[in-house]
Amino acid sequence: MSTSRIFDIAGPRQQRRVRIATTVSLVALVLVGLVVAEKLYYEAQFVSEKWLVFYDLDFIRFLLAGLWVTLQVCAVSLVTSALFGILLALGRLSSVAVFRIPAIGVIEFFRAMPFLLIVFAVMFGLPSVGVSMPAYWQLVVAITVNAGAMFAEVFRAGILAIPRGQREAGLATGLPSRHVFTSVVFPQAVRNTTPALMSQAVRVIKESSLGYIVGVAELLNNARVVSEFTGNFIQAYLAAGVLFVVINTTVSYLGARWADRLESS
Amino acid sequence: MDDLLKALPGLLEGLGVTLYLSIPAFLLAMVLGSMMAIFRVSRVRSLEVLGTLYVEGVRNSPLLLILLLLVFGLPDVGILLPLELAVIIGLGLYSGTFVCEAVRSGINGVDVGMVEAARASGLTTRHVISEVLLPVALRTMIPPLATVFITTVLSSALAAAVGVTELTGATRVYNLVAAQPFVAFGIAAAGYLLINLLIGWASAKSERLLRFNQ
Amino acid sequence: MMTNMSERSPSQGAVIELKDVEKSFGATKVLTGVNLSIAKGETVVILGPSGSGKSTLLRTTNRLEPIDSGEIWYHGKPIPREGRELAAYRAEVGMVFQQFNLYPHKTAVQNITLAPVKRGKQKPEEARARALRLLADVNLSEHANKRPGALSGGQQQRVAIARAMAMDPEVILFDEPTSALDPEMIQEVVHVMKRLSADGMTMAVVTHEIGFARESADRIVFMDEGRIIEESDPESFFTNPRTERAQEFLGKILNH
């Protein structure tokens, strides 16, 4: 809507130009599609057995089992990350330096690290200092550390966005400061940050695909098993990709809906 | 100290590979993302749809999956790319979606009144875009694009999962050989922190240089 | 003057003429059967309560908003709808906005020279010399190389007027030029506008500055709910408004 205000409303000549561009680009896209299809056909990718994973119930069930683990990992990680994130956010907002400075350090450090490096540190670093755990928990811990730092910043922004006056009003009614936080500030912060948290959830779902590295039988890892078993890499990963895109688009959509509702209320 | 000296060459080489992957990937992402952003604000419906499909499809897939498709899938259709090139393409495709969103919100965030003033002054659409819209929008895009660049560097670590020994991969290799997790992960962490700080500093610097109120 | 003008052909001497202009935003009708003509050298002040369609009227005049039906003529020809022709027409019709809308990345001088240089009307040195003269006219010589962010609202608006003047336009449209200004800055802008009017510039001004309207307007156009409901000289409009809505409006703004 805003772009239509940046440029002049199209007159008849421009409308004609847009129609021509639409036609030309459609033709170009169809041509590209045909070239790809021809290549796929030539490489015998259209043989129905290659697409087994899309219609064979056993394969589908196997991938869905992976998806179920993905969702479990994400559900657990979201809870642990949120808790860790809240802790870090409170630390960073604290007026006590002993809490604040380590919190800032942890947040900034983990935000600057690649997720895979954290995964490797949990997989190979922790055992050498005597901390070992099953693969499932290695994945959850890695996600928690990384996503917790992200969540902390989201929560912090959410808490800072609550008008000061509300906190003061709460204190003025005689609520102790701890209760003002839990009953006035915190619920609103959660409500306002939900859209941002949803996009972090998408991130967590994508990160859980590193079960492939850690050895957790989640969606991507199961897709790898299928690809190696059938020898059809493209189809196996495409199938997993479809499931990831469906789940993530749904979560993003819900986040956007929530954001719309916040704006209109 | 000895351990440090033994670890350094391999890890520095890894750092080099990280940059070798992420800089071209970010450039590719800039080109692709800007193009898709233009598609998405154009009035050509078919291109808008293409841009939306690209962003929603790629952004919602795990990068590792995209890399696996390129590295193991492409050979199945007779396309054999050098490993690094496949990673650069995958990383560029993935980061391109974030560039697209940064560019799009930069354009949409431009003050409409200012653009109207430019149109009302008799400038043609081309000049409105090149003299007013882009110079102003580009400034607001610097911080989000710097974040995308940082994300690209961090995401390039996934190259290790498909067999490229960049910084994260080199860390793992060194740790396997020497069993020195503190040295290995410490150096790698320092390397990534350094890149983060450098990009952050460059972004802040260029933003200050281009600030309007002088 | 509220005669039915729908049968009229482009009138002699009118620079700009609107005929039966209608405009809606979605389901809201903002302009209904608007007829208006502005003659060479005339200063027309458009008054009316907020939401009466004054701004939209100005914005349709240089096609920042396209109209749904009716016609807008410039020297007896319909205004162009798009492209270079539209840009060329807009170069003849300057506009000054409520929010100044200066280019934040360019200095005062660059704001003024951009359009003349890019349109190939003036060479860069020529444009710069002229911009400095225009800035001197609005008492801003010492601010020539400052960016808008370093200028006050009143100074920005005077730069914006100089920018509009730089194209040597035949008409300038003023869309509430003083509404976003602090009270102490209003007069410096009004002063410039009064001088322009006295110099014979053709102007259409949407404003709430009654002082300007009384002193400089050749004609007052009063709008309400998207229609022009009264059109007269300032003297009779302010002393003896004919419509109830105009009386009400004047009562409110004169007694506040």
TrEMBL record, chain A:
GO terms for cellular component: ATP-binding cassette (ABC) transporter complex. The chain crosses the membrane at residues 20-42, 62-88, 109-129, 135-155, 236-256. Pfam families: BPD_transp_1. It is found in: Cell membrane. Residues 67-255 form the ABC transmembrane type-1 domain. Keywords: Cell membrane, Membrane, Transmembrane, Transmembrane helix, Transport. PANTHER family: GLUTAMATE_ASPARTATE IMPORT PERMEASE PROTEIN GLTK (PTHR30614:SF1), MEMBRANE COMPONENT OF AMINO ACID ABC TRANSPORTER (PTHR30614). This is Amino acid ABC transporter membrane protein 2 (PAAT family). It comes from Tamaricihabitans halophyticus.
UniProtKB/TrEMBL annotation, chain B:
One of its GO terms (cellular component) is ATP-binding cassette (ABC) transporter complex. It is a multi-pass membrane protein. The chain crosses the membrane at residues 20-41, 53-73, 79-100, 142-162, 182-204. It holds the Pfam family BPD_transp_1. GO terms for molecular function: transmembrane transporter activity. PROSITE patterns: ABC_TM1. Keywords: Amino-acid transport, Cell membrane, Membrane, Transmembrane, Transmembrane helix, Transport. One of its GO terms (biological process) is amino acid transport. Gene3D superfamilies: MetI-like (1.10.3720.10). It is found in: Cell membrane. Its main location: membrane. Residues 15-206 form the ABC transmembrane type-1 domain. InterPro entries: AA_ABC_transptr_permease_3TM (IPR010065), ArtM/GltK/GlnP/TcyL/YhdX-like (IPR043429), MetI-like (IPR000515), MetI-like_sf (IPR035906). Belongs to the binding-protein-dependent transport system permease family. This is Glutamate transport system permease protein. It comes from Tamaricihabitans halophyticus.
Automatic annotation (TrEMBL), chain C:
Keywords: Amino-acid transport, ATP-binding, Cell membrane, Membrane, Nucleotide-binding, Transport. It is found in: Cell membrane. Its EC number is 7.4.2.1. It comes from Tamaricihabitans halophyticus. One of its GO terms (cellular component) is plasma membrane. GO terms for molecular function: ATP binding; ATP hydrolysis activity; ATPase-coupled polar amino acid-transporter activity. It is an enzyme of class 7 (translocase). It is a peripheral membrane protein. This is ABC-type polar-amino-acid transporter. Residues 16-250 form the ABC transporter domain. Belongs to the ABC transporter superfamily. PANTHER family: AMINO ACID IMPORT ATP-BINDING PROTEIN (PTHR43166), GLUTAMATE_ASPARTATE IMPORT ATP-BINDING PROTEIN GLTL (PTHR43166:SF9). It catalyses: a polar amino acid(out) + ATP + H2O = a polar amino acid(in) + ADP + phosphate + H(+).
